[in-house]
Amino acid sequence: MHVIVHAGMEKTGSSALQEYLHRYRDKLREFGVIYPDLGHRSHWRFAAAVGGRRNKDHYFERRLEKYDLADSDEQILETVRSAIIGAKDDQLIILSHEDLGNYSVKTRLSEFLSDCGVSDERLSVVAYIRNPVEHFPSSLQQRLKNHSKNTSSPEEWVSNHVEHAHALLSEFDSSAHLRAFSRECLLKGDIVTDFIEFCRTASGLEFPLPHDRIVMNTSLSAQACALLQVAKTVPGHLLEKRDFVMLRGKLFKYDPELGRTRLEIPEDWRAWVATVNHEAWNPLVDQLPYGDDTKRRLKLPDIAAAPKPVSETDVKLWLMKHYDPDYTREFAKRWTANLRYKITPAAGVLAWLAESPNWMAEFNRQVFLGHNAAQKVEAQ
């Protein structure tokens, strides 16, 4: 018996991997691979239960709001415990969630696995880490999609992958394995294929690769990101969390056919991310299982001169340069075509955008008012 824990990290294709493991779990079982069914494609319930984080983390709180959870934490732990203890010598157990490598979860996870009789020789903990320059745009979009989070400046943004990676290496030692989430490094450029090959090597089991590429959590276009920023910024037209989530969901539905351009961050922002993150990131790259040439390409450059300062206000104003009234009008048509959504607060915001020619000036005014207020607070 072998246990493989996939511990993310965030924005490294975890949802696609979990979708594959969940969708094909019955087929995988035929090959001796057990992916416990805990009611969702990922094992977030297990991460919450083993870490004692229920009601203590925004991610879990959001899940708890969405799902009617009849099973207690202890029942979830018992389901996983039974799967591990009941596994045959030639079977593989896979557990997957990004939070299994979190600071407050990893130690309790280690204790839980030890109590289940899983020795270091029978355990592999694998996490994918992403080059910070590539990670930042995804993180920026993730913050835009979150109702309660503001955008962050590239000169202040620090990737959490490095700290989490060192925490995993410290806790699990030789059982911990880091891999790069990079098209160059992933087998066939695909996270699912790469992970399965890792599982084959670690466990000695042979099981099939996916026939079709699974894509989850696709990026929104620059125009959709600008629309989300509006919904989070202008007083009098701010959406409550429920309505914001509804708007975001419809953007994911219609954006593939409406989106004009990708959200590409400016080159000097990339320089800022490299400047802030290279000292912590580059030594970690040396521990990855790749050749010297690949490691050299994964490392960040040491920028000699500091780039031009970039504030959070600059980020918001840059986002709004991508606002496209034609995109908003086309999106609004699709939104209001469904009578159920025609009378929602989001419909009111869309109508306001179409009917108020001076709204952009108001947006910029509110951004600068907020920026100036923040500067006054810092000065005090």
Explained architecture:
The chain is α/β, with parallel strands linked by helices and 380 residues long. The chain has two domains: 2-203, Rossmann fold (3-Layer(aba) Sandwich); 222-262 and 324-379, no CATH class. The protein is 55% helix and 6% strand. The protein has helices spanning 14-23, 25-29, 44-51, 58-66, 73-85, 103-115, 132-145, 161-172, 191-203, 222-231, 241-258, 267-285, 292-298, 312-320, 325-336, 339-342, 345-355, 359-379; strands at 2-6, 33-34, 92-96, 123-129, 176-180. A five-stranded parallel beta sheet has the order 2-3-1-4-5, sandwiched between helices. Helix 3 packs across helix 5, helix 14 runs antiparallel to helix 18 (359-379) and helix 15 runs antiparallel to helix 17 (345-355). Residues 373-380 have low confidence and may be disordered.
Structure described in brief:
The protein is an alpha/beta fold and 380 residues long. It has 18 helices and 5 strands.
